[in-house]
Prior knowledge:
single chain, alpha+beta, 3 domains, seven-stranded mixed sheet, 10 helices, 7 strands, 14% strand
Amino acid sequence: MGQQSGNDFLETFRELTGGAPHHNIQDLNRLEDAAKERLYGLLIPEKIFDLFGIDRRTFTNPRGEKVVEIKAFPRSTFAVIVVRENPGDRDCIFYLEIEDTPLYKIEINFLIINDPRSPRFNTDVDETGRRTKFATVRRNIPEEIRAMEAGLSPGQVRRGLRLLRDFVSLAEKFITAMGQDMVIAEPLTYNTAILFEYYGFNYIRGRRRMEEINAGFQPGGELFEKLDGSTPFRRPGMEKTVRGRAWAIHDGILGEPWRGIEMYRTREPANVCTFPGWVY
C-alpha cells in the first residue's frame, strides 16, 4: 500500500474517530485502543513498513512479532509511537513523541528515524556506559569523532533513513484532519533546524539567532575565526556545510548551549532559509 493521498488520509482518520471532532491529543487518547493504534500508526512513514516487512494492520514483523508500540493513555495529553525491527532491539527505527501544548496546538517533542542495520556509534553513552543526554552532561569524544567522520550529525547513533520529508507530509495531513492549523517543533540541533526550514517550517523564536550564526560563520566572522583546528570539531572549512557547522556548535563554539529555537509548520510551507546555498 502506498502513501495515502490527503483525501484518503482524512477519510481514514474520520473512520477511526467515528467522524466526531478530535482537536487535540487528549481527545484522541480517549478512543478505544485498537482505533488509537491504527490512528497513530498513520504517522509512521509507509516506507518503514515496506523496508522492514512490517504489516500495516497487525504491526508485526515477518516472524509475527509485534514491533510497533503505541503509548497513548486515556486522559493523557501526549502520545509516543515506537517502531523496532525486532522487539528486543536496543535502537528503534522510528520514535515519535507528540503532545498538546498549553495553547492547544500540537508539538513534536522528539523524533528519531534510524536505519537499525547501519553501524552504531555510541555517542549516547560515555566510555563507562553512562548516558550523555545529548552531550548536556558528558560526552564520548572518540565515538563522536567516529560518527562525524562516518557522515553522521550530532545526536545520531546510526545513519538515518532519509524519511523526514515523508514524515512532515504525514504530520501535515494529521493536523489538518484534527482541525489544527500548525505543528510545533523544537530542533535539538542546528542541522535539524536547517532541515526543518527546507521542509517548510518557520520560526516562532530563534530566527534572528540562526541568522547571526550564519553571519558568524562567514569569512572574518567570530565563529569562522574559531574554526582553528583546536579540536576535531573545529576544523577550517567546517563552516561550508550544515553538518560541519552543527558539529562545531555541538562542540560549544557558540559559547553557550544550543537552545531557544522553536519552529512551526502550517498547512502551507514557509519559505525561510538562514543558510543560503547550504550543502549538507
